[in-house]
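Progress note, project year one: complex with flavin mononucleotide.
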Amino acid sequence: MSLAITLCGIALRNPVIAASGTFGYGVEFADIVDLNKLGGLITKGLSREPIAGNPAPRLWHTEAGMMNSIGLQNVGVKAFIQDKLPKLKKYSVPVIANVFGYAEDDYLEVIRALEDAEGLAGYELNVSCPNTKHGGIFFSSDPQSLAALIQQVRTVAKRPLIVKLSPNVASIPPFARAAEESGADAISLVNTFISLAIDIETRTPRIGAGFGGLSGPAIKPIALRMVYEAARSVKIPVIGLGGIANGEDAAEFLIAGASAVEVGTATFADPKAPERIANDLEKVVRRLGVNNVSELVGTIRFPNSAK
Ligand SMILES: Cc1cc2nc3c(=O)[nH]c(=O)nc-3n(C[C@H](O)[C@H](O)[C@H](O)COP(=O)(O)O)c2cc1C
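Model obtained:
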């Protein structure tokens, strides 16, 4: 039985990837996690300059999840290339750089810098950021700005390009199609859901910056529905995430149409979560009686009355 897959040209030993923002730059986890057991790892979002991030509190625990507003704190692309990336060379795990910006030029500059660096398997674009040159409309909430951004990035990105979609839209298929038509090699979804928690004593938000992004098990059923809808709308591979905490969760995303999955918030409670979930998935796949994990992808069956 094989868990190995090839995702837009990247060979993964299993379809479980550590998600962006919950796994640092990978190196920080090397002492506690066997990086070579992961399908892949995605770095914290990288910007052209270092970013200090948002005021505290940045995290708030909800009933079945977590809100965060880290403010995309990161060391900046230059420090990543100089200090972090070389340390990952001794591992065989494919490393994917998560990239963001507030204007098309920001994205282009980060990708140009990364193109000259060795040791990366591909890019994941975080498009859930306001486009400050266009009145702050999020790239991820306007199919035209999304398409324009991806077309630009495509001109400089030679490595596989994954576009990470935001769930904060009324309908996901137009965004999935815009990504495919503008040259994305794959899409990943979901990013976090914009959310609010209030301290009733002070009547102020629980998160320093006001709103936060909701993640974890609370979002899993919505993420699954969106992954299903996206996978039906495009031919490029879909990577599913949102609340995955065990092998069965991962299998649900594969059955909904994802070719691979990412694990984010679960890593907060258990740094080994991506490795554990990959092991777990192997048992689940065996139990479901298929020889290759790819055989599960998109095999959801709706009763005739339901679809
Ligand atoms: C603390 C934290 C930081 C995050 N930082 C990033 C980031 O830098 N770039 C990005 O694309 N997504 C980021 N995300 C979103 C996650 O990668 C993921 O899309 C989301 O949390 C849903 O998956 P999960 O429920 O497994 O966490 C972050 C999430 C959390 C919880």
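Residues 21 and 181 are 27 Å apart (CA to CA).
The radius of gyration is 18 Å.
No further modelling is planned for this target in the current period.
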